Amino acid sequence: MVDQNNNLMDKIVALAKRRGFIYPGSEIYGGLAGIWDYGPVGVELKRNLKNMWWKSMVQIREDIVGIDAAIMMNPRVWEASGHVEAFTDPLVECRIDHERLRADHEDEIKAHEKKHHPGKSDWTEPQKFNLLVKAYLGVIEGKQQEIFLRGEITQGVHVNFKNVVDSTRIRIPFGIAQIGKAFRNEITPGNFTFRSREFEQMEVQYFVKPDEKDSLKTFEYWKKYWMDWYIKLGISKDKLKFKDHAPDERAHYARAATDIEYQAPWGWAEFMGVHHRGDWDLSRHQQYSSKEMKYKDPETGEEYIPWDIESSMGVDRSALFFLIDAYSENKGRVILKLHPQLAPYKAAVFPLLANKPELVEKAKKIHLDLKKDFMVAWDERGNIGKRYASQDEIGTPFCITVDFQTLEDETVTVRDRDTAKQERAEINQLRNFINDRINNHQTD
Ligand code: ATP
């Protein structure tokens, strides 16, 4: 089982590189640990994921607005948030081979011993390391200001809480959504992009009136919301589960915390978290900035610091789990059964024969026309079977072939990735056809 699973990760890493999803960062220089680059199809997958998320949060809902805060922030932010003192994971170092591992990752410690020096165990006491990545602002050596690249995107929302309330008509309960990069000096990056040192997060901070019972209802609402969201976008239901944090496992300020975990090839792994942060962040910023963070209810005049129910997920982790979950093989051929909304290309267009100018010309016209609305691939190499196989590997849901019949009746063959069934469709209906299938796609 373990071998099979490792094998699966090897296949996914190889496919990702071969087809342009994900490459090792600065690979020609030997790479940089925990850093990855997205290729032409990977960037589309990630963009589609972010767009779906933004649509669900900001576009459709009345109660959530979006922001895009800077990666570099005044260093006082990280003192207020507690990161400077507490954004550290106690580590232990192996005295035998100097490997450093997180003290709370007992399984990894055991696995390390077993692999490198079975029966021998000699670790240092846990020590704290700061996970925030340092940077320096200013051009004059010696006069530069030391800052941190943000270790989470959350704080950009909290420091702008008042700005958002004052500049919009949004009223509690409401959320502020954000997507952006975060940086952490992870000690043990690994499992492909799962634990990277530069990654993207998508978060909603949902602000509610301080009330124990009601806020817990909101917490439960978001837990269910995200579980349903990922299932609807195609993640297998039986590979997802909630993991509630026991009081001693959660951050000291959290009133409740749950992770959604995915059954990755290497075991259950955190996908995202829903955290009840109470008034921790806003109160701390009020204290550190001496700026009032209270919200005033325009109807009742009540004033309070709201509580925050946070939903936080990694874009890269989600993209990786979508890739893993979509990966399937049929008679040695790879089919990436991505939800059409996430698929890098919605369709591919082929002329049946590359040496028949009338077919190529017609197919080119369809390709250019559809490209105005969708990402559409083009292929005229090899035979149709090979082109189907090539599109299946990157998850393209529909392949459109222009053949001799097309020249007579303005119809094309549309072949479905998942069923391999072919049907005729009218050229002038293709746009509707694709839209309809994308929007009404049912996941298994
Ligand atoms: P872990 O326990 O795996 O380190 P965490 O509990 O520190 O994660 P949070 O701080 O809650 O993670 O971050 C929220 C989300 O951001 C995570 O659920 C994950 O999807 C993503 N994330 C966090 N750290 C990384 C990382 N190093 N690489 C990729 N994604 C990450």
From TrEMBL:
Classification via Gene3D superfamilies: Anticodon-binding domain (3.40.50.800), Bira Bifunctional Protein, Domain 2 (3.30.930.10)
Question: What name has this protein been given in UniProt?
Answer: Glycine-tRNA ligase
Keyword terms, alphabetized: Aminoacyl-tRNA synthetase, ATP-binding, Cytoplasm, Ligase, Nucleotide-binding, Protein biosynthesis
Q: Name one GO biological process term.
A: glycyl-tRNA aminoacylation
Q: Name one Pfam family in it.
A: tRNA-synt_2b
* Coiled-coil parts of chain: none
Record carries keyword Membrane: no
